[in-house]
Amino acid sequence: MFDIKVNFDGLNRRLERLANNARKLEGTRQLSLSELLTPAFMQANTQFFSLDEMFQGSPFEVNSAQDFKTIPNDQWDNYIGATTKFSTWNEMLYGAVTEKLRRDLL
Question: How far apart are CA 73 and CA 84, in angstroms?
Fold first, then answer.
C-alpha cells in the first residue's frame, strides 16, 4: 500500500561510534567518587551542588577516606535516602555508574 523510505546511513555511523566507545571501556577500571558523582549528577539527583557539599552537610565528619569508611552503613543510607533521589548509597553509586557509562558510550 504505502512505501516508506528509510535511510540507515546515520544509524550505521552511530552504531560504529558506539562499538568503538564500548571497546574503549573494556576491562576493569577504578573510578574515584568525584569522577562518578559529578556536580551535574549531584545537582540532578540530590539537594547538593557537589560531593563535597554533601559531605559537609552530613551529620558526619568526612575529611578523609578513612573518616568516610568509619560511618555506619545504615546511618549513611538513611542520610542518602533523606537527601537524594536514592534509597541507599549503593543505589546512588549504581545510578552514577550507569550515567557515566551512558555518557562514555554515546
Answer: 16
Closest CA to 88 of 64, 101, 104, 72: 72
Output DSSP code: residue 8: -
Largest CA distance in the chain: 70
CA–CA distance, 37 with 51 (Å, rounded to integer) = 6
Q: Quick one: DSSP state of residue 13?
A: H
**Percent of the residues in the chain that have a pLDDT greater than 70, as a whole number:** 93
β-strand partners of 46 = 84
Residue 37, classified by CB atoms within 10 Å of its CB into exposed (0-12), middle (13-18) or buried (19+), is: buried
Q: How far apart are CA 15 and CA 2, in angstroms?
A: 28
Q: What is the pTM of this model?
A: 0.78
Question: What burial class does residue 21 get, using C-beta atoms within 10 Å of its C-beta: 0-12 exposed, 13-18 middle, 19+ buried?
Answer: middle
